[in-house]
Amino acid sequence: MSRPLRAGLVGLGVMGRNHARVLQSLPDVELVAAADPRPEARAASNGIDAVATVRELIDRGIDLCVAATPTITHQDVAFELAEAGVATLIEKPLAPDPKTAQTIVEAFARHGVLGCVGHIERFNPALQDLRRRLALGEIGELYQVVTRRQGPFPARIVDAGVVVDLATHDIDLTAWITGSPYRSVSACTAHRSGRPHEDLVSAVAELENGIVVTHLVNWLSPFKERITTVTGDLGCLVADTITADLTFFQNGSEPAQWERMAAFRGVTEGNMTRYAIPKPEPLLTELSHFAAAVRGEPSTIVTLEEGLATVEIAEALRESAASGETVKVSR
User: Fold this and answer.
1) Residue 316 near residue 327, CB atoms below 8 Å
2) 127-158: pLDDT as tens digits
3) Which of 86, 292, 327, 331 is the most exposed place for a label (fewest CB within 10 A)?
């Protein structure tokens, strides 16, 4: 039997500690050590060998690493790991801007090292089943994707606004479930909490295949909401990624008896079905696929190039909000 993969972790914040928990649970993976420059974070590492620098972590002899650090630090961490030949999963977003993201893509390509991005929503059971059903044509021709991602401000975020930190989830998942890149974006942002970064964005976009997209993202709501709705000519699929529930609202076929309603020749209310689907933890699924990719086994990962494309759309949203104009997206 081959030896376990030796794993490292950079960053012992909230997300880093989640990664540590899951990495320790994976079969044939050994979490060797974690790196964090903050003494208080290392002191609270719960028995994990904790070092101060990425170099010290690399010197432990690791096969793979998860980088769960603030977005502005991704470039330096990625360069060091790529140069050392360590396969790396970088938490989303890949970088704070497209230029930096491009340099990370080039670094891993130059050294011939596996790199991927931690867009965890792709591994949510509700979205995975939604994507499968869309591919089967279960709601027919697709018209629209609407996402709502709202909640209170998380104090752990210090270096980004909602466009980079939150909307990148919706940008990536929308392109992924529809199989289509973005064609144009138009956005408005707001600053209501006194921070230098935006805390609200409302965006309308069009995909290359003609699907209309709406994203509503904020850190101003007292309730937490993570909803993706896809509308087609046969009905709607609604994914709640907090509960991992997927619900189908069917376009009914019964003729309307009420004359006022019958005058509208569009959809009618039909059956509603909440699907019973397996609900494994998304982070466990994501890291299992990452480990499989490192071993050279069949796997699903979010490539660095896909991470770059998401950062480019996020930048286009900010550009549109600043200029007040629709931004055409071209790659």
Assistant:
1) yes
2) 999 999 999 999 999 999 999 999 998 776 66
3) 331
